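Minutes, project huddle
Topic: does the predicted pose make sense with guanine bound?
PN asked that the exact inputs be recorded in the minutes so nobody has to dig through chat later. Recorded below.
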Amino acid sequence: MSAILLDGAGVARQVYATLAPRIAALQRRGVRPGLAAVLAGDDPASRSYIRNKVRACAAAGLHSEVRDLPADCAEGAVLGIIDELNRSSNIHGIIVQLPLPRHLNGNRIVQSIRIEKDVDGFSWHNLGALVEGHPALVPCTPLGVIFMLDHAGIAIEGRHAVVIGRSNIVGKPLALLLISRGATVTVCNSRTPDIGTHTGMADIVIAAAGRPRLVRADMIREGAAVIDVGINRLPGGKLVGDVDFEGARARAGWISPVPGGVGPMTVAMLISNTVSAAERQAARSADSRRENGDAPDDLTGTA
Ligand code: GUN
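Predicted holo structure (tokens), as shared on screen:
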């Protein structure tokens, strides 16, 4: 048996196609969705992720800007930039690329982003809404994983999902999303003894531990869906996930590759969150204009 390949790049293209009319509708109202990325330091992986995000914004017709800060920047400088972006009417979404240099308080910085512009979904408000089961802006990688499963017709409700990884960015929010969709969820991490006893019983295995080839073929139940969130660079420069892809694809029912799997979906969900944030902000400013008796959108700019 050879697994069905979960082509994240292809699914992401479909996401962009469904976003296009929403972006066009905003532009007709004079709103071009805008994303700002704050990047501190010179981590090569972070720089590469930001390049991909900026490229995706340009391809989708979004405005984007990167605030590039040196590794030794002061926390006050980062907070000042976020304050300015929070107030900017051209910016509807703000992300702070993680990890930040160690001397910066990541929590203080991320929590200073206005909730409506928190398109990474990392604010306590947005994470709390996810816990409560009424998600607003949801972290992009977990959202992309769920989208991929749904797109492939892989059932979640009533299934056993094993998530390997407990990060605030992926593992924890993904577990919450799977729980809210009715899955039975086990959350392992890289220190869980004998991870295979858990993954061997799973219908869905999601590897997000950041350890190359942590998940081997013998750890997977035949026919399971295997989603690889890991992006690891081997000493020779090759990019691999957390799953032994060649081995696992012979046993799994579905498998996502690295690269070309979850990565493009993360970026597509970021663009989708930015468009949703722009729609909400445009609706809110139209409401406040109406309350003030100002001209509605479709009349502004006409003689
Ligand atoms: N670092 C790794 N993944 C992410 C992400 O999804 N968002 C941000 N801001 N930083 C990251």
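Observations noted during the meeting:
- The chain is about 40% helix and 15% strand.
- The longest strand covers residues 34-40.
No decisions taken; revisit at the next huddle.
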